[in-house]
Specification:
7 helices; Nucleotidyltransferase, domain 5; EC 2.7.1.33; alpha/beta; cytoplasm; 265 residues; transferase; kinase; globular
């Protein structure tokens, strides 16, 4: 059984796979100061008696990488830690490939394999909207190439900033408002954050899709993922698919390619 671990700025997602079928999934708060022993204790508590035969991991938290590497080095199973220099099979068509986060690379890999391949074997572009600590809108070409994208603050980050910087505003429950015109402070914040971010996403997707059509002659499939996608995606007009497991599926695919030695980058 493969264990896929996506260490994000706010949350860490762990998922187990039997072949290409996800059989378990957990979301926990990321602790940047955790030691390798603490990580191992957490993983064992979640996995219980599951027999892990391989691990694929990525991290966007530099402070946690030494502990994560130490833990992975101690395991007696094949391990793939996605990062610069690790082959994933995803061509990075950007100015500086080393700047691209490992999570964005493996998410692009899964997006192409799950949504970018037509039944006849031809490819089509995909736009991935990842709702997390940041809101990422990334473009994937019809051959699976990562083309770049747009990065914006996440919904929760924006709420925290408002509550911190605006004396008369406060943190509120993030939920979809009944209408755009808020009749009180709470409703107005919910409208601005949830519906506002939906408008931001729709605007970015529209521009990125236009560029993809101009370049490849085909409209992209637009896929939502990330921990906050359920909050915002339903208010977006541009999103056609929802796949909360996209990144861990990408880790599974990267593991298979890396361990099989077939990836080209």
């Amino acid at each position: 059984m493969l264990l896929a671990v996506d260490v994000g700025n706010s949350h860490t997602v762990l998922a187990t796979f039997d072949g290409d079928r996800r059989v378990g999934s957990w979301r926990v708060t990321t602790q940047p100061g955790a030691t390798a022993d603490e990580l191992l204790f957490l993983w064992r508590g979640l996995l219980r008696d599951a027999e892990v035969t391989g691990v694929a991991a990525c991290s966007t938290v530099p402070a946690l990488l030494p502990a994560l590497r130490q833990l992975l080095d101690s395991l007696a199973v094949p391990v793939t830690l996605i990062g610069p220099g690790v082959r994933t099979g995803v061509p990075l068509h950007v100015d500086n490939p080393r700047e691209v986060g490992a999570d964005r690379v493996v998410t692009a890999l899964a997006a192409h394999e799950r949504y970018g391949r037509r039944p006849d074997g031809s490819g089509r572009p995909v736009v991935v909207v990842d709702f997390g600590t940041s809101t990422n809108v990334d473009a994937v070409g019809p051959a699976g190439q990562f083309l770049g994208g747009a990065l914006a603050p996440g919904v929760e980050v924006s709420l925290d900033a408002l509550a911190t910087r605006a004396a008369q505003l406060r943190s509120v429950e993030l939920t979809v408002p009944a209408q755009a015109i808020g009749k009180n402070t709470v409703a107005a914040l919910q409208s601005g954050l949830v519906l506002g971010f939906a408008g931001l996403v729709d605007g970015l997707v529209d521009r990125i899709a236009g560029e993809l059509v101009a370049q490849f002659g085909a409209a992209p499939v637009v896929v939502a993922t990330g921990g906050l996608h359920r909050l915002v995606a339903d208010s977006c007009r541009s999103i056609s698919e929802r796949d909360p497991d996209l990144t861990v599926h990408g880790l599974r695919l990267a593991f298979e390619r890396h361990q099989g030695g077939t990836a080209q980058r």
